[in-house]
Known about the structure:
alpha/beta, 7-stranded parallel sheet, 12 helices, globular, Rossmann fold, single chain
Amino acid sequence: MRKVCVITGGYGGMGHASALSLGEEYFLLVSGRDVVKLESEVRELTRLGFDVEGVRADVRDEQDVRSLASRAQALGEVACVIHTAGVSPADSVATDIVSTNAVGTVNMVKSFSPVLSEGGVMINFASMAAYSMEPTQEWLDAFAQWDSPAFFDAMMGQVGEDDGCEDSFFRDGIAYSLSKRFVLYFTQMNTERFAHRGCRILSISPGCYLTPMHEKLIANQPDVAENQLELIPEGRWGHPYEIGSLVRFLCDSAAAYITGVDILADGGSTAEVFVPQIES
Ligand SMILES: NC(=O)c1ccc[n+]([C@@H]2O[C@H](COP(=O)([O-])OP(=O)(O)OC[C@H]3O[C@@H](n4cnc5c(N)ncnc54)[C@H](OP(=O)(O)O)[C@@H]3O)[C@@H](O)[C@H]2O)c1
């Protein structure tokens, strides 16, 4: 039976890089919410010789995600799910950030946990921003409501009121950190559940990679981008193909003992910011 790899955010920077690194081994089921961009991605991956199909799905829509999971199962053995779809303050407001990153991840895990085949792996994309704020008890209480209709409101309650006075970029930034901290925490909450089915689940927290998402930040907020670059010990932005290589390793049987963790791939930024560095 053919092995299927599902990639959300399929035509995004990290989704595309993941498809390139996994396409030789798996049948690719790439997904995104824009049909035109999705068709173009399918054409490109087909041109490169990969077996691929595109399915339109908005990860905020539980029914869309369920249909994506059913299609994956119909195509073969669902071996890996690379959930890269996400939005950031570079082009989205707090409500979209929470609904896409947090609610979208709940939808993905709920729909794919029953269809992932034994030995399969699910990788959710968090962010180094998840490390920028310590989760409070109130955050954890909101996270605990992941399966309740009140979840979105509970999360937005942690972002704070939109009183029209506060800088919206500040609120959007909190929503991003909160939603990505949730991705990391929720992934870990599922470790035992996945292990019981012979599967793994983990997250990747990228730092700053040169994808369309980060290019928007560089274009719209060059000062913020410059400050970020100064705080990267590696002294450069990450390249999407580096995420592709990491994803390929994490899907391989060589990584069979790696589950329930977050892989922080940020060129050293978090250590630089939060841990006193020894002078060279
Ligand atoms: N690039 C970085 O430096 C960086 C840093 C930290 C974390 N991350 C995280 O890494 C992941 C991948 O980011 P990237 O850099 O590859 O960004 P990207 O190039 O913008 O790709 C993200 C993709 O997600 C899709 N998407 C957004 N909302 C969606 C929805 N509701 N349903 C389905 N698809 C949706 C976008 O397509 P449409 O908008 O056309 O739907 C886009 O193709 C994201 O979760 C991001 O938060 C990235």
